[in-house]
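JOB MANIFEST
job_type = single_chain_structure
chain_count = 1
residues = 118
[input]
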Amino acid sequence: MDAFLQRLVPDELWELFQRVVPPAPTRPQGGGRRRADDRMILAAIVYVATTGCAWRQLPPVFGASWQTVNRRFAEWSAARVWAKLYRIILDELGARGELDWSRCAIDAVSLRAVKGGS
């Protein structure tokens, strides 16, 4: 894995992700195309999430079509992979004091204020 993809999905994240991702389905008849690598797909999803690019604009460096990446994102979302991963990160990294809580902030836009209130 090249440095660009390694930066998107470092080994520590990949190890945590492997604990929550469901096993890949197997075709009883075999054959078909080889399944795209989960780590490459995860890197593509992280890329979309962090850059804001559209699925259709994914660069070919990820080795999978945007449809494959989007489909895997939907499958993993249905399996609650993101919630499970978030929980592990909070539980394990937070317990070890490895989370930087100083970077967490409340978005002022989400707070309601009464116009002309006291």
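[summary]
The mean pLDDT is 83.
Residues 81-95 form the longest helix (15 residues).
exit_status = 0
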